[in-house]
Design a protein that fits this description.
With 430 residues, this protein is an alpha/beta fold. The protein is built from 12 helices and 22 strands. It has a 5-stranded mixed β-sheet, sandwiched between helices. Strands 1-7-6-3 form a 4-stranded antiparallel β-sheet, with no helix packed on it. The chain has a 4-stranded parallel β-sheet with strand order 10-9-8-11, sandwiched between helices.
Length: 430
């Protein structure tokens, strides 16, 4: 097994500050990096062992051969202090420190929404956790509601997840403050502003936070870890991960409580090992995931590891249509290069507005006004096909015009979805 690597930047905010030195002995659950200033979050070792190296970017630990189940407990005083001390951040991908979301109570009413959308295709670990035991998530939701003085809690989930829905309905029956809200089965219905729109009927501006609508939104696993921190005094040292794709085992597997810092290669070995051929390794989901490597560690925001299908050869020249809800321009260029295609031109969805340099937000996530003009522009620039990162609705609009212009369409999710025999993102009905 490779050494465990704990990056100092695993969240939005300042990097953590190491508090150990090479040669130090550390115990599972021990703090190895304190929170930095400005939305900081501490880092804990998930294994007992010896510190091998401390760099500007990470603390590296060689794990002992035999690992304890026990961990060094937290020693805070209040629920919010436990959440802060535990190093909990948004585990759905954004990585915003959770204590900061819960530090400002509502003055009048308010709602905490548990985001159980499991928005990305292929990823299933949140739904499986609910099916396995939904009580920790509900306990975390109730703790969050108490902290922000919310008078209502909503669990936003797709109706297609029947077993999870039934488990939740039974579990919340005794708390009249809690309710379910059923989401449509489209991407990106789990985006925070899409959740607010679907649950509360309020469309927020691209730069606005859910708090403007009187809401706090927290991912399922994050709520579970909140309950662990407060009730079990456990720091954030483990992660639920979906492992999928070209494996010597089942195509989609869920692992609960993998130790943070574990190398991707060792995670894949737990899933049966890599198949002989694959196109790339993706950390995250098919839409928003990034290319990773075998020696990269799983971190707080890791939701998935996908061994994608080998790349299909592309045309000589390809046009990129970038959506704010999917892969960005850099990622599409990376995929195009792996397909052997030169980029003829780049266009952005008309709703993908740049809110700050290099960061785009959709005006109305999942509701697309049409892409005919962008598609025609890319064809005029010499594109022989399109590579797109569009959401479900946006892709439908592309497919309404591109075939008529004799432009084949590739999607950023194709390699991941083909690897698990999932229906491709093209023309899809909700």
């Amino acid at each position: 097994m490779r050494p465990f690597v704990f990056p100092l930047s695993q969240h939005i905010g300042a990097p953590s500050v190491p508090v150990v030195q090479p040669g130090d002995r550390v115990q599972r659950g021990q703090c190895i990096a304190e929170a930095g200033e400005g939305l900081g979050s501490p880092v804990y070792t998930s294994v007992s062992g010896t510190v091998l190296e401390v760099t500007d970017d990470a603390v590296i630990v060689r794990a002992d051969d035999v690992q304890p189940k026990e961990y060094v407990p937290l020693t805070a005083q209040t629920p919010l202090d436990y959440i802060r001390q535990a190093g909990i951040v948004g585990l759905g991908g954004a990585g915003f420190p959770t204590y900061q979301k819960l530090a400002v109570p509502f003055l009048n009413g308010g709602v905490v929404i548990a985001n159980a959308s499991e928005c990305e295709p292929v990823l299933t670990h949140n739904i499986k956790a609910i099916e396995r035991d939904c009580r920790p998530m509900i306990r975390g939701l109730q703790l969050a509601m108490d902290l922000v003085h919310a008078d209502k809690g909503v669990i936003a989930i797709k109706a297609i997840h029947g077993d999870a829905v039934r488990a939740l309905q039974q579990a919340i029956a005794a708390d009249d403050r809690l309710a379910l809200h059923f989401l449509p089965n489209v991407y990106p219905v789990g985006e925070e502003r899409a959740v607010v729109r679907e649950v509360l009927g309020t469309l927020l501006d691209a730069g606005s936070l859910p708090s403007k609508a009187g809401a706090v939104i927290i991912n399922v696993e994050t709520l579970q870890r909140v309950a662990e921190a407060v009730d079990d005094k456990k720091p954030l040292i483990d992660k639920d991960v979906t492992v999928a794709g070209k494996l010597n085992g089942p195509e989609v597997q869920v692992f609960h409580d993998l130790p943070l810092g574990m190398a991707v290669s060792d995670v894949l070995e737990k899933a049966g090992g890599l198949g002989k051929e694959y196109g790339e390794l993706i950390m995250g989901g098919p839409f928003m995931g990034r290319r990773t490597s075998l020696d990269a560690p799983i971190v707080k925001t890791t939701g998935g590891i996908i061994a994608a299908e080998t790349f299909l050869p592309g045309p000589e020249k390809i046009g990129l249509l970038v959506c704010a809800c999917g892969a960005d321009e850099k990622r599409l260029r990376e995929i195009a290069a792996s397909m052997g295609s030169a980029v003829a031109g780049v266009a952005f969805c008309k709703q993908a507005h740049e809110v700050k340099p290099g960061v785009r937000k959709c005006d109305n996530p999942g509701h697309c006004p049409g892409q005919v003009q962008r598609v025609m522009t890319l064809k005029k620039e010499g594109a022989q096909a399109l590579l797109i990162s569009n959401c479900t609705d946006c892709t439908n609009t592309v497919m309404a015009c591109a075939p008529q212009l004799h432009l084949p369409v590739y999607h950023c999710t194709d390699g991941a979805l083909r690897a698990v025999h999932h229906k491709l993102i093209r023309r899809i009905k909700a």
